[in-house]
Amino acid sequence: MSLVGTQVRITAFSADGWEDDVGLWSGKKGQGTLAEFMTTYIKIPQPEAEQLAKDVLGPWLDEWELRDGELDRKIKRASRWFFSGVALVVLLAIVGFVALVVLLVGLI
């Protein structure tokens, strides 16, 4: 599942306690799961990374699903395609009308 729009900022700390580096996991396809990102980025064991990812994303994902998260994304995507198609049809109609007017003016 792709979680585009979800962002988790991860700060790695060095042994002396200072910030070492900051990473951003955004849930895009190909980036892997949050647990995989934490395992490679801040070098924590896989079980701990999975538990942290569950603690971070679990409540949010549950709420998202309760609010028809995936269905909402599909509806938005379908409506975007629909309105893009309508805009294309209107644009083609305008171009056709202008071409017709130019043709009629050229005949007069």
- Secondary structure tally, helices: 3
Strand content: 5-15%
How far apart lie the N and C ends?
A: 61 Å
Give the number of DSSP strands.
2
Largest sheet data = 2 strands, antiparallel
Question: How many structural domains in the coordinates?
Answer: 2
> Over all CA atoms, what is the radius of gyration?
25 Å
Structural class: alpha+beta
Q: What is the average of the pLDDT values?
A: 82
Helix-strand string: EEHHH
Q: Please, what is the oligomeric state?
A: single chain
| Shape, per Cα inertia axes | elongated
What are the segments in which pLDDT stays under 50 over at least 5 consecutive residues? none
- Helix percent reads 55-70%
Placed side by side, the strands forming the largest sheet appear as 1-2
Summarize the structure.
The protein has 108 residues and is an alpha+beta fold. 63% of the residues lie in helices and 12% in strands. β1 (8-13) and β2 form a beta hairpin.
Molecular structure report:
This protein has a two-stranded antiparallel sheet. It folds into 2 domains: 66 residues, no CATH class; 41 residues. The longest helix is centred in the C-terminal third of the chain and has 39 residues. The radius of gyration is 25 Å and the shape is elongated. A hairpin with a 5-residue loop joins strand 1 and strand 2. Helix 1 runs antiparallel to helix 2. The chain is built from 3 helices and 2 strands; from the N terminus they run ββααα. It has 108 residues and is α+β, with helices and mostly antiparallel strands.
